[in-house]
Amino acid sequence: MRNSIIASLLSAVSVVYGYANPMACSGVCNNAHDPALIRHSDGTYYRFSTGGKIAVHTAPAVTGPWTYKGAAIPAGSKINLSGKDDLWAPDVTLVGDTYYLYYTVSAFGVQNSAIGVATSKTLAVGSWTDHGSTGITSKAGKNYNAIDGALYWDGSKFVMSFGSFWNDLFSVNMNNPPLKSAGGASTNIAFKSEGEHAQEAAYIAKSGNYHYLFFSAGKCCGFDTSRPAKGAEYKIQVCRSTSATGGFVDKSGKKCTEGGGTTVLESHGWVYGPGGQGVYWDPKEGPLLYYHYVDTRIGYADGQKKFGVNKIDFSSGWPVV
Fold it and tell me: Sorted alphabetically, which keywords does the UniProt record give (predicted)?
């Protein structure tokens, strides 16, 4: 009887919140702000994250145990901007036989920003060569902030999505190989005019005939000193399009450039402010949504943010955690 009651309560919790809790995580599961996840062909998982000149952790499984290995770019970036020794928002992609690591050089709240790139044949600490700027930069007066870059192959070309605040999210075409932008104009792909309109961490993923634009909306950081109104904290939202460079709409049909966005994952239970996400098609687990979050049972500080992973289901045409 007791087990039956517990099962009923757990079922009720699942219905109320509507979201599965993160998968189990062992080892070093913090130091995970703005994570990037990739699996080497030898089966080793690599996690890259903001800070420590891009912190690198490895594990034999996506659930761990995670071990800190060092900094991807220990000398700091070649980009001569404030923040070149405190690199943000990594994104890692395998192109041919080379891994591309994109990172941000910036300072909080300013537009003097650039997206840099480093390459490696192995992913391992000590193997990365920094190439400096991709050519995607911003300064005061631009309608975008050149941070949070993520590379995407749309089937015919490489596209970089990026942005935060100002006019929010943009995309620009990249050269092939994708060390530099192709030099064309950037396209606004998502914008929310009301409130602080904080949208960032754009990440495009393909499923079926659609390109899905995932992004984080709301306040990202500093929850231990200044918690926002309920619902104004980070959450993961999505729009989709048949083009990777525009035309994104949410599930209701609202344009992403006019405030649209369908929530994929938000605060629930002891999970607070999930964001900084990406999607990885794991050969064993299938599509995974990875992100950072605050575990309210531990603490709200940025340094306490944990690595979260959930299986994600696209079968309805919209991603469901």
Answer: Hydrolase
Would the pTM of this model clear 0.85, i.e. be above it?
yes
- Active-site residue 233, yes or no? no
Q: Which two tokens stand for residue 272?
A: 């607070």
The Cα angle at residue 291 between residues 288 and 294, in degrees rounded to 5 = 135
**Alpha carbon 318 to chain centroid, angstroms:** 18
Catalytic residue among 130, 148, 168, 200: 200
In sequence order, what are the residues at sequence separation of 6 or more whose Cβ sits closer than 8 angstroms to the Cβ of residue 222?
302
Phi, psi of 14 (to 5 degrees): -60, -40
Catalytic residue among 34, 86, 168, 250: 34
Cα distances (angstroms) measured from residue 154 to each of 184, 211, 282: 17, 8, 19
Q: Is 301 exposed, middle or buried (0-12, 13-18, 19+ CB in 10 A)?
A: middle
Q: Where do we find the tokens 């605060």?
A: 267
Q: Are 36 and 90 in contact (CB under 8 A)?
A: yes
Q: Which of 85, 83, 92 is nearest to 57 (CA)?
A: 92
* 200 carries an active-site annotation: yes
Helix, strand or coil for residue 54?
coil
